[in-house]
Amino acid sequence: MELEIWWLLLCPLFFGMGWLAARIDMRTVLKHAMSIPSGFFKSLDALVENKTDVAAEALNEVTRQQPGALELQLTLGKLYRRRGENDKAIRLHQSLLESPDLVSDSRNQISFQLGLDFQNAGLVDRAEQIFNGLLESNMGKPSRQLLLGIYQQDRDWQKAIETARTLSHDQQTYQFEVAQFFCELAQAALFKSDLIQARQYITEALQANKKCARASIILGDIEQKSNHYDEAIEAWQSIEKQNPEFLSMVAERLYDVYDEQGKAIAGLDLLIGYCKTFPQLELVDLLYQKTLLLRGENAAIEVVRESAYRHPTLNNVYRLIEARITGLSPEGRQDAEVTRAVIAKTAQKTMMYRCKRCSFKSQVFFWHCPACNEWESFTPNRVEI
Known about the structure:
Blueprint: H1 2-35, H2 38-48, H3 52-65, H4 70-82, H5 86-97, H6 104-120, H7 124-133, H8 140-153, H9 157-167, H10 175-191, H11 195-208, H12 213-225, H13 229-237, H14 239-242, H15 251-260, H16 264-277, H17 284-295, H18 297-310, H19 314-324, H20 330-350, E1 351-354, E2 361-362, E3 383-384
Antiparallel strand pairs: 1-2, 1-3
Helix pairs in contact: 2-3, 3-4, 4-5, 4-6, 5-6, 6-7, 7-8, 8-9, 9-10, 10-11, 10-12, 11-12, 12-13, 15-16, 16-17, 17-18, 18-19, 19-20
């Protein structure tokens, strides 16, 4: 009974203490809110409206009023960089680094932003120097990631491989990229006819990523140059298991190797089989020419007709009209010529290679997408856009 009385007496006390604490907290919040410069809210409002010039001016005024606010200074530097005012961003970050009171973590953070300023301004060498100086700091990982991009841009593939392997972890191994870097080295060695070195690079590429279709393409080229025709065929045919879309890039090479061995018919049959199994392959022109050469006009027309019906693209229909045009009457031939010309013009504008990641479109095939920097993401067979 006495315990219940004590609780009744203490409840008002606890209630009063809670009310007092809430009042104190609210006063603290209001005090802090009133201490924030109005320019800060002005800059936020300008950013919402995408008025970066007004935002930068307002935020610059705030940093003058509160010179010790490092985060605001860094934000202002990012805003300058976004606006392309790299000289202002560089001066700001360099002035911050002159402060003798900076702790090491803050100094590294500012140096990292300065490196971004130099990179954005096109001064890649100075950016690389700064990022290399941060590798053992708290900014080491983002610095390596940016260095990886710089090395790819400079085509310094050995450094890119070393950096990618250092960055590798369970969530991202970078093996896909490493394989592409070795392919770049192999392609350069093959261009110099250094087949031994090229083969070594390709071996390492396939060890990094056994599904790298590009590595198999280059390996086939190496074997062909070495007159190892069976090995070349084996390398190129392995693409069927890696990524069959890339078979279109080695189709003519496959036929040529078969032809050099006196097996042109077998090579043609292989390509016809690929076309039936993978209708998206852009092979109709090659098939028409080789079938016309080996089996005559009627067989060539039949191959084109089957391809056009199986995969009715502008290019296939164009080739079908071209194959059929000789059997038409003069008036029919004239009509077909007009139709063919329109299809050719349309195909030239709409048939493009496309990045599967970012949908960047180009008339030229890239192994490395210039828009999103993804490797082996371009469709090796053109698509209608």
